[in-house]
Amino acid sequence: MDEILLARSTFGTTMAFHIIFASLGVGLPLMILLAEVLYLRTKDSDYRLMAKRWIKGQAILLGVAIPSGTIAGVQLSLLWPGFMEVVGKVISLPFQIEIFAFFLEALFMSIYVYAADRLTPWMRLLSVFLVLVGATASAVLITNVHAFEGTPAGFDIVNGQIVNVDPWAAFFNPSFVVTALHVTVSAYMTGAFVIATVAAYKMLKTRKDTKEFHFHQKALLMGLIVGGTFSLLTALNGHESAQYLHRYQPEKLAAAEGLFETQPYAPLAIGGYTDPVTKEVKYAIEIPWALSFLAANRFDEVVVGLNDFPQEYWPPLFIHVLFNGMVGIGSLLIFVGFIGFAWKKLLKRESYPRWVMWIFVASGPLSILGIEFGWVFACTGRQPWVIYRMMTTAEAATKAEGLGFFFAIFLAIYILLGIVTVLVFKYYFRRHPLRLQDGSQEAAK
Amino acid sequence: MTDTVIAVTLLWIFVMIYAVAASIDFGAGFWSMVYLNHEKTRATNIANRYLSPSWEVTNVFIVLIVVALVTFFPGAIYTLGSVLMIPVSLVLLLLLIRSAFLVFSHLIDEYHKMLSIVSGITGFLIPALLILVLPITQGGFIKVVKDVPMLDFMGLLTSPHAFSYIGLAVTSTLFLSSLLLSDYSHVSGATQAFKIYRRDAILIGPVTLLMAILTLQTMRLENGWLYDKIFDNLPWLVASAVFFFLCYIFLLLPQRAKIGLSLPRLSVICALIQYLLASYAYGAAHLPYIVYPDITIESGFTDHATFHALFVSYIVGFAILIPGFIYFWRMFMKDENYLRQRPKQKT
Questions:
Q1: Quick check: B272 and B20 in contact, CB under 8 A?
Q2: pLDDT per residue as tens digits for the range A406-438
Q3: Which one of A305, A369, B56, B194 has the minimum C-beta count within 10 Å?
Q4: Residue A220 domain-assigned (yes or no)
């Protein structure tokens, strides 16, 4: 491997690992807040207990999210010093403000976790609300930098010098709002479906008509409704994201769809893979005119194909598969959320069949997979640029050598920590089983 | 003051806050390992109780420092990123492991022993690695090969100057943390733990002073430019030494006395002032260089428009956050019930 690929692999591994914990760290506080609100409204102590158990999960996840996020932040400077020089001069505001969001989250997280029994209900609600605000703001602000990489604004490079800097123009770069919304709603979706996963799994393992079963059923319904709603929002916003690609990064959309010829009435290729030799998408289902419609809401829209760009600026063609994976999972999840809701509320059935339950179990891991696909798609689809048409990844990378060693060590540590996290989850929740009769005992623990 | 001086001052303040908070944090981890088997004294308990809520907030400061450095002095990032790659990556790995265990052990009692060992070992390794930033940025260990700055790692590992810094960092960590824990256990009413931590502070205090003198000596041999400039700030150094002796006297006095504040609290305050003054002397002497001799605060500075936007965001951000910090402080550092663990007494 060359050093640039090693640098990308090291940073990519950090992000692939961190993004799981980061997304859940944004999504779970929403579920906890909703549970606290439902508790205040219904006085059903099950919801309070849910909030209490979920916050423990959140605490375990944060134990990994915070240090891995710290690593991501520092590695940016270590691995991409060229990029960070532009960041420092042009797009430093979001990083700066993110610190405050991070502080807010850390402070109130500590208060909510370590001092919950000393807080009034409203103070508790406020604390978890501020955790949610902090976590969401962090996600939005970091995405801001990502959006800037795709649609840079607010500076010029003249003779290698960065000039005409306007930090607020860089901050409000064209794709900021739509991209940040995409990350936020998909994180909310993931948090909700992960709750649904756990609840559905527990229901499969619990006898019906027990209190525990009903407890999990409430959690499941909450997860499915919230998850379904946000997966719908993710899709609507995803449609808009695709139109932004059409307008601002046409070669990325072309590679995502495996489109080579520039054309109106462009077809949408679903599935299959892009063959670089024959320049076509193999084994795909083609829907005529659909891509043009997707790109601009009209069938005669001209969609630019890859042939219009020099081959050295093509993104890797495998992103077609990633793009399809992301969209496929997203669509499936809307459906999952809808079944859960319809079965219960429209058909008024008491319980779900077992095979449906297993689909619910799969929803959380699928959401995470969708996020990973989407993120790898977004970043590899921008290659060879780190800042679109401004700076290449190769220019940004560190010139230090010996990255292979660190790549190996970080990879090993992430795998180890992943395993330990799972063990801690298993161990903790086995040691603290759900006891609905003596819920107050649980609280004291 | 010019923009660059404001920026470097802010950065210095963040580094100071982190250095103190992290010394206490890492040192507390070390002490919780040392007193693991002293069941009766509760020394380990006290250390862990301090650590639980505070490490997250301390940890944010690392990111704050990196962000402040990148945003204020992006021109320094290329060199710093390249030469600090190895030590900082090692620090990151250790931090990752440590933080994970801190959280896990809070949830699972059986992990407490393992936590104390993990946070104890990382507790002195991390400061030892972090301090290497100082000798590296003083120059002498950076080779430029084909326009790429590289760290002369072997040179660093065989340098007495680097080792005297490591000694200074580790002893200071232990000194500051034992001081703060003595105050913390004093407030918590844990007499046994208080005695132990006070004794540790009394033992280590003079060693830190020796290490500081040793570091100045090795600096004279290896980085004469900085040594000469530090002595331009002699009054600050003298004042720092005075506060060290004040701190030490408060520590030695019979602890029933009270001069406004309790004596352990006074010791802590004097020690903090001592480190503040010494680091001011160091920082002022180091200026205008970020990395000697190539990068100065002027050459590395960000765009002025960006700096002004950042400055506004700092003011707004801290205005919003300070009430949160105060609330946090009252929750964990002042609340008698929390400190004495009234609601439930774990054995």
A1: yes
A2: 889 889 988 988 888 888 888 888 877 877 654
A3: A369
A4: yes
